[in-house]
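Apologies for my clumsy wording, but are you able to produce some protein sequence, whichever is easiest, and the tokens describing how it folds?
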Amino acid sequence: MATQPWLLELLAGRPMALGSVFERWRDPEGGDLCTCTIVTTDAGTDIALPKCRMRLVLGDDAWEA
């Protein structure tokens, strides 16, 4: 089954914060490797399809965390 891309935007074009995990790895020679991943959750009822996942959108109160 092919996946369908979706475009999700906040009202009035406001910025959107997504839940994510960042990590910096240091190798034995002293180099850095920076990695990140976007956290997903079950899709909301307004776009839910069977086995559908969506990015975790954070509320305004989480911006300073």
